[in-house]
Amino acid sequence: MAETRRLPLEGIRILDLARLGPGPHSSQILADFGADIIWVDPPPKGGRELTMPRVIRRNMRSMILNLKSDEGREVLRKLVASVDVVVEGFRPGVAKRLGIDYAMLREIKPDIICVSLTGFGQQGPYSQVVGHDINYQAMAGILHLTGALDGPPRIPGNAIADDAGGIAAALGICIALLGRERTGVGQHVDMAMVDTLLTMMLLNVDGYVETGVSPRRGETMLTGVYAFYNIYECKDGKHLSVGAIEPWFWENLCRILGREDFIAPQRPDPEVSRERIRVFQEIFLTKTRDEWVAELMHAETCVTPVYSLDEVAGDRHFRERGSIVEAKDPESGSRTQVGMLFKMSETPGSIRSPAPAVGQDTDEVLRELGYKEAQIKTLAAAGAAGRR
Predict the structure, then answer these.
(1) Of the residues 306, 329, 351, the one at which a domain ends
(2) In what order do the strands lie in the sheet with 85-88?
(3) By CB distance 3.0 to 4.6 Å, which of 90, 245, 261, 296 could disulfide with 94?
(4) pLDDT tens for residues 349-374?
């Protein structure tokens, strides 16, 4: 019989109080690799509940806990004593008012790791400012660089701060866990989504520092100012992306398209660059997107199709590699999902359970904490812990 391999985070228990923002994303990544994630939701609010899509809660357990009640906070204290990490996404100051800030958590469990996820961080003039993904992108300079030269800033089609913040939070948790393994000391991790975006903007910030010139959208290499890094419409109305930054890839593309005269200089002055883009636009309009893909994508040109999401879900490469998978679903039987972020050779992640119904595991978690059936019923009757 083949040996069953342990998931790398088996035995790590995480209490997730974040619910929104990057919290669910980080927990999903860690749950895929074996962490026991106990996702905590507040009691129902008469239809005003904010819930995340089910797929992001796969491999987790869900419980309802009223942190504003004495009974609920007592349950929380027992939970904290049983976990390795607490993730919270309250506005700075709220966790302290609830008695669950890092100082209080450390009194319950000295080596606890507490991760606070917010938009702007725990300190600073903006710490109390409310916001969403678009606001963090705006403050980090991303929106300023997104869009055409002669147009306004444009909103990217994805929640960059939430998604990248979730990956960053998962990394921060793993670093803190590794640090505790080596030193025996827990710590507080203050993670701001805008900080994640600033890290993603590192090269742009460095470019500004070096030159003293703040870049404008439509005037930098990565915003469509050159023919070799651009998006082109094809005969069927679909689009191609061209990213031939390296001179040898650019040379390959120019030769295939019959424009060897464009090879050098690769980065001409703006007027010549605009003319090259216009010529490429005319060339790419002569064939359908998939005809160009067949001709260029595997020809060392850095050309790929611009996919719609139905094409992403059906792409053969993503399917074969497990980046897009089919997983069991209690409602539909099977559900298309994004697969594991990391493809690990010895301890691969897996989808072991679908997203739980809100609060479905409350009783199970309470039993693990030592509560008897009568006590569980009392907590439910008091509205301190239960399920929807």
Answers:
(1) 306
(2) 188-192, 113-118, 85-88, 13-16, 36-41, 61-65, 385-386
(3) 90
(4) 999 999 999 999 999 999 999 999 99
Number of structural domains the chain divides into: 2
DSSP of 195-245? HHHHHHTHHHHHHHHHHS----TTSSGGGT-STTEEEEE-TTS-EEEEE--
Considering only 43-47, 130-134, 194-198, 211-215, which range has the smallest mean pLDDT? 43-47
Run of H or E including 85 = strand 85-88
Confidence at 1, pLDDT banded by 50, 70, 90: very low
* Torsion sign across C-alpha atoms 311, 313, 319, 321: positive
| Catalytic site residue from 16, 162, 361, 363 | 162
Residue found by looking up tokens 């996919």 in the block: 307
Find the domain containing 249 and state its range: 221-306
Give a yes or no: residue 325 inside a domain.
Answer: no
User: 94 pLDDT band (50/70/90 cuts)?
Assistant: very high
- Residues 55 and 324: beta-carbon distance below 8 Å: no
Query: What is the distance between the alpha carbons of residues 267 and 103, in angstroms, rounded to a whole number?
Result: 55
Print burial letters for 213-247: b (CB count within 10 Å at least 16), e (below 16): eebebeeeeebbbbbbbbebebeeebebebbbeee
Give the pLDDT confidence of 224-259 residue by residue, as tens digits: 899 999 999 999 999 999 999 999 999 999 999 999
DSSP result, 147-165: S-TTS-----SS-HHHHHH
Q: Are 193 and 118 in contact (CB under 8 A)?
A: yes
The catalytic position among 132, 144, 188, 239 is 132
Give the integer Cα–Cα distance in Å for 314 and 291. Answer: 18
| pLDDT for position 58 | 93
357: CATH = 3.40.50.10540
- 121 and 190 together in one domain: yes
Strand ranges, E, within 164-203: 188-192
Check if 144 is active-site. Answer: no
Mean pLDDT of 118-137: 96
329 given a catalytic annotation: no
- pTM exceeds 0.70, yes or no: yes
